[in-house]
Here is the input.
Amino acid sequence: MTFLLAPNAMKGSLSAQHIAAILQKSLRRKYPQSTIISSPVADGGNGTLECLMNALGGTVFEKAVTGPISTTNVTAHFGITKNSIGIIESAEATGLHLVTPSPETIALSTSYGVGELIKEAMTKGCTEIWIGLGGSGTNDAGGGMAQALGVQLIDDSREELKEGAMNLLRLDGISNTEYRMLNIPVKILSDVKNVLLGEQGATYTFARQKGASKEQLPYLESALKNFADVTEEHVKKEFRNIPGSGAAGGLGFGLLAFCSAEIVSGIDFILDAIGFDDKLRQCDAVITTEGMLDEQTLLGKGIAGIAERARTLKKPVHAFVGMINGRKDELQRKLSLASITQISPDDLPTIQAMRDASWLLADAVFHHDFSGTHS
Here is the structure.
């Protein structure tokens, strides 16, 4: 029997590479004669940089950049492949894991550090840039990123705005005096299809988990709307309703408007980049992982993309997840999965489940019934 291991990271707990090692060890114990193909994946979110650099080869660099709030600096990593493609995982500079979420931090949040990473990649001679958008702790629609690239955001007194999501309420105009359009292709790898504004937009879908209070949401939404109004008037083109423009606190919007970027499905783009389909044809079954399985998974997360390709080739997919939020049978049917296994008991506290994820996963895989898998 040949297994294809295609784990996605369990955010805050295990990297995709670590999960692949755990899966391999458990399967070797259970099926000593099996063939195992290891191919860790990402969907534009956590683990994108590691996944692509391991698959494509190249050099990983680090740079001190502005963190999710402008008063902090963080050490962020980015990669340049052998073919001079810059790989940026936006969460390296703006990640939710870099702040203690609160109404104050989201009001001050900025994507400035992402712009600094783009500039650094450009100085190293990149001919194309790929940017993964998942896991952000910001909500400034890419305003900070644009400022880092030289775009001047000004208020009605012709003063330049300080970085921060809530400051966009005072935006009155844009000056491009120092900004030069990136004359190279920029691809945005998104794991969600949310637009910028509205109930399904950046603020109302994601801001609460980034620390926003309920009372704060209308103000954050107004700030993004004002930024979109002024920006679209300036560039003479509309981007706010493009699926994915609301990803990473609206960073998708800013990249579309100021970097002539193209949004693509993160999981599909990465699966193509790592030659996933060729590996899929060689296997009898696929094993994949995710931290949380819920309705959002159906909208372009890793498991959905893997399951869709496996369905085409009639390969069963077994998913092992940290937690299931929703009806298991319904999610399994919608995703066409052979099985879904929640590795942690329902009554186990989340912090403990994340801490013990390694052995919980190893145990779940070892005791799982893969019968009927052999094609």
Remarks:
- The first strand starts at residue 2 and ends at 5.
